[in-house]
Amino acid sequence: MENYNIVIIGGGPAGLAAAAAAKKAGEDSILILERDHELGGILNQCIHNGFGLHTFKEELTGPEYAGRFIDEVKELGIEYRLNTMVLSISKDRLVTAMNSTDGMFQVQAKAVILAMGCRERPRGALNIPGYRPAGIYTAGTAQRLVNIEGYMPGREVVILGSGDIGLIMARRMTLEGAKVKVVAELMPYSGGLKRNIVQCLDDFGIPLKLSHTVVDIEGKERVTGVTIAAVDSHNKPIPGTEEHYSCDTLLLSVGLIPENELSLSAGVALSPRHKGPVVNESLETSVDGIFACGNVLHVHDLVDYVSEEATNAGRNAAAYVQRGQQGTDLASVEIVPGDGIGYTVPESLRAEVMNDLLTIRFRVRGVYRDHFISVYFDDERVQHRKKQIVAPGEMEQVILQKKDVVAHPDLKKITICLEEA
Amino acid sequence: MYDVVIIGAGVSGSAVARELSRYNASICVLEKEEDVCCGTSKANSAIVHAGYDCVPGTLMAKLNVEGNAMMGDLARDLDIPFNRCGSLVVCTDEKERGGLDLLLEKGRKNGVPDLRIVERDELVQMEPNISDEAVAALYAPTAGIICPFTLNIAMAENANVNGVEFRFNTEVSTIRKVDDHFEIRTNNGVVETKAVVNAAGVYADVFHNMVSATKIHITPRKGEYYLLDKSAGHYVNHTIFMLPTKMGKGVLVSPTIHGNLIVGPTATDVENREGNNTTRAGLDEVAAKCSLTVKNVPLRETITSFAGLRAHEDHHEFIIRELEDCEGFFDVAGIESPGLTSCPAIGKMAADLVEAKYHFEKKDNFIATRRGVLNPAKLSLEERNELIKKNPAYGNIICRCETISEGEILDAIHRPLGAKSLDGVKRRTRAGMGRCQAGFCSPRVMDILAREVPEVSMRTVTKSGGESRLITGLDKDEYDTMPENRHD
């Protein structure tokens, strides 16, 4: 058995930023375990630009953005192992992993940072009826084939779901000579960023059909066509609205699921709302010494925010190792999603150990125009900020100041909600 | 000229092939798909039935009980995952309780061992998630769950090791009796044989009717299913059936041998013998019916849904016999549920019929056992590290969800009747069968297939043979074919 102070599960953008931050916070004994054959995670296949506007104030491609963090991790001399699959994590932070050179091995960590990212929701989870031929891909799998392997998964494409990867792939497939016939979205709004709808669909004349879904898949061996239909307010297909599209490919961009099987093996409590670990202000999970950041915690739209969150997780894990147990006996204030809010990260804070500024990220439940984002300390409204429009596809945030929290010594509950103008 | 040609490489055909491979005879299996286990055998409840359900005195009842009894040894000999988890037929209405007694009596007549009625208190102990309406159940401890893919693949592999030839992508178009033998026309030429075993599933009536004046009729009867994540795999501990009532037959809820939960099937007669598509109505029906026996089935944990076609013969009976009006032609037809359970007995019975006619000589070098794809998860830490040291591919995880290594995939490809497609790898190793449904691993498995299978490249690799190509070309291919981009 080996010993490291901090073991980071995943060498994607979250793991890399967490590692660099922990190292800069004075922690030398760090190990990153990465299952792929290179660091960088899913960014390696995101060859489009638009990354890094917040972090570096310039527009980078995914591999370039990842490259900066990879360089930093290497310059800092942080250890990492590639092609290494973590099989389980115990409650006591004993990590069991495997690769071809070391075989199966165990590492005892003082702190673990979960940074495994997320996976795509497959067709089966949607129960789309029809055949099960070749030619049905999640958008991310298609992205890998086109951008990394250099192969086209299809020529005539229908896309279900308007998540960002689906939108990006609509443009990407078009640029590679495929015909993208339509993007159907179940919800009455897109799940992707506005800028992606404009740059990836509108600019190429690809129609986006909101409140539509796929109701049948044809083709015994390879997809030969799909049928889409409009849905009612309960997301049920409306008979008579069916439209047939002949195509050889159906791409799915119907949601991302934080990949928390390892978290569960460690007994980490998950939020039913964002499907990631329940965390406090330090991004520490319900299990002592296990931290989480990035898409394993909650699905982000922008990698810049992943880096920022992971930096905090890395610092906090380093502080945890250096200080020992970080005060499980401290008073904790609950952070609750109120009207119109789907979830918040974190879900609680401890005033004594919080930083001067604490960013709380959240998503709204629907599209709201001219609403206020409000923060309540128990019954007292302490923030009230007007937004012209908020939508589930764009993550929102509020920032709390430690001095405000400390000024409310009896504070039990912080509520974030949407209020009408 | 073969001694025996078997049409169909499903569980029935493969069971017959394995039983006949005990003899010195030249045997060939013709299969229209690219692999074994591509029809009814791949899409069913994966249940080994106890045998209380069949009408006493029928061949179905006999072979069900025999097949169940044989399954333990077969699973051991051929390394097939099998677990006698037991089944419960649940009665949810005090007034219908008589139905349980009738089943119990039928079961005893059929020779099903250890059947008994369990009352609600014990039932709740056995199944905490049983419906609040459940009053009692028939408990059959000999019922079990099995991997239908491995069952089929293992019997075929073992038959092949013992000399049986398999021709894939070979579809029979006509069968003609010529003097004392048969001429079978296929898309891959003519095959001559002394005897034919017709194990063609939903097509068995087509081939029977080509050579016999006594027609049979088989209806493809569709069954639709949900398969749930392993997180729901322990929702029930036994296979839970509904006591058939005037409300209908109900659907089963069962753990699978690999730790998922299976819920289904429907029973809808269809015209299309290839029509294994799921339907909105079918999936909705399963969702509605499963709650009759088990409360709050977590269907939101569904990772895939699928449909299979049962080969329903009009009289709902297995037909295993030599045709009276066509000597040398043996039917193994109408093999619907409990066909999977019965297959060891079906294979034995059909092989005995053929052997009794032709008196083949018994081999003295028959290999009775087969080792499956090595499952490293069953090894100790030391054994596993020894394995990885010897073959580093076992340390390279390809399928994250099911933790399947490259070593297992290579084994699946290079063994007898090895995998040639994504589905072939999936059924042999479970790579791609987990919660992400091959999202992450399919490009990597495609890559391995392209590297390892001589006739397969990235451009030609398929999901399941035929036209199920996964790749349509290289990036920018289409660009090069546009007139304005041509440089020639």
Description:
The complex is a heterodimer of chains A (421) and B (488). Chain A is of the alpha/beta class. Chain A is 22% helix and 35% strand. Chain A is built from nine helices and 28 strands. Chain A has helices at residues 13-24, 62-75, 123-126, 139-149, 164-175, 194-201, 261-265, 303-323, 402-406, and strands at residues 2-9, 30-33, 49-51, 60-61, 79-81, 85-89, 94-99, 103-114, 118-120, 136-138, 151-152, 156-160, 179-185, 208-210, 212-218, 225-230, 243-246, 249-252, 256-258, 290-292, 333-337, 341-345, 348-349, 357-364, 368-377, 380-390, 396-401, 413-420. Chain A is globular, with a radius of gyration of 22 Å. The N and C termini of chain A lie far apart (59 Å). The relative contact order of chain A is 0.13. In chain B, helix 1 packs parallel to helix 8 (339-358) and helix 10 packs across helix 11. The longest helix of chain B is centred in the N-terminal third of the chain and has 20 residues, at 59-78. In chain B, the strands form six sheets. In chain B, strands 1, 3, 10, 11, 12, 13, 20 and 21 form an eight-stranded mixed β-sheet that branches. In chain B, strands 14, 16, 17, 18 and 19 form a five-stranded antiparallel β-sheet that branches. In chain B, 30% of the residues lie in helices and 24% in strands. Chain B is α+β, with helices and mostly antiparallel strands and 488 residues long. In chain B, strand 23 (397-399) and strand 24 (404-405) form a beta hairpin. Chains A and B meet through helix 3, helix 4, strand 11 and strand 15 of A and helix 7, strand 19, helix 9, helix 12 and strand 25 of B. Strand 11 of chain A pairs antiparallel with strand 25 (473-474) of chain B, so a sheet runs across the interface.
